Amino acid sequence: MQLASLTNLSKLTLSYQTEQTAFSFLAALVPHLSQRSRPSLCEDNTVADHYQLNLGSLRSSITLTLHTHHAARIWQGRTAREGVHSIMGMAGYISVTNLIKQTAAQDDPYADWAIVQLEEKLMQAKAGMLELTHQLDRIRQDLPTQIDMGDNLNIHPVTLPLYIGSQLGFLAVYLLTDYDTLVRRTLLAHHTALIGRIDMEAWIDDGAHLLRSLFGQAQRYRHSGVTRDDMAANNARALAAIEKLGLPPMDILEGHRRSQFAPPIVRRGAVAVDDADALAEETGEPSATVDEPEDEA
Fold it and tell me: For a FRET experiment, which of 47, 49, 164, 230 has its CA 20 to 30 Å from that of 152?
């Protein structure tokens, strides 16, 4: 009897110690869990639901390196002064495309129309820049095979931080890097007597025109302040927008045709969270000071 009593007492003591150990472990764990990650009565009784992770927004550090003053001037644009009109630069273009993306997300058909037009303009500019590059490649075939010519890179390039909230902004930056490369190779071709000065200036100007034309397309954008619901109701806002901006193509107006880079539409009262949009930042305007022409080689 005494042995049985001692056995039962040992079992009770072991059970009590186990419960105390489990309780101590949970008591130590709870302070490290946020209110959001603690289990609630309405959640499923699973480990995945009980211990949710608190994730923040995605961020990425992106920079742009330019080697030529020609590309840096395209980035900067030109401020207006007496007798000289302003020229939009890359920072201004990025600001406009950020605005267009925001208004397109608010169901503005005119913003969707602008994104489609800019995407088409970007594709045309990319094709034009590629054609100029191919022409230069054909010229470089005249270089004697005994000569090995490397890239001409700036010993002090300018590096700019990028704060871009739209895909159209990034596509334009990619185009600017193509232009920077085109200018470098064109200057080198002239320096090594593969082309004359007239051809060199023509190639550089033609590449710059592709970017300036793209910026001009963005500069013509005007905010309409309407939604597709306004257009369907044909209310006063819609009539004013049509009088000022014209009528968008029907497939865009009805939402059947949107750019591959158009944002998801957020209806009034709804909130959309997208990890890709978490990378969007307010547009900064880093400068690239241009004082002297670069060397030709």
Answer: 164
Beta-bridge mates of residue 78: 87
Tens-place pLDDT, residues 194-216: 999 999 999 999 999 999 999 99
Query: Domain for residue 228, yes or no?
Result: yes
Domain of 186, in residue numbers? 63-279
For residue range 116-151, list pLDDT tens digits in order. Answer: 999 999 999 999 999 999 999 999 888 888 998 888
Q: Are 113 and 184 in contact (CB under 8 A)?
A: no
Closest to 94 measured CA to CA, from 180, 178, 167: 167
Query: Are 156 and 209 in a shared domain?
Result: yes
As for how many domains the chain has, the answer is 2
**What DSSP string runs through 216-263?**
HHHHT-------HHHHHHT-HHHHHHHHHH-PPPHHHHTTS---TTPP
Show the tokens assigned to 15.
């059970």
Q: What is the pTM of this model?
A: 0.72
Length of the chain: 297
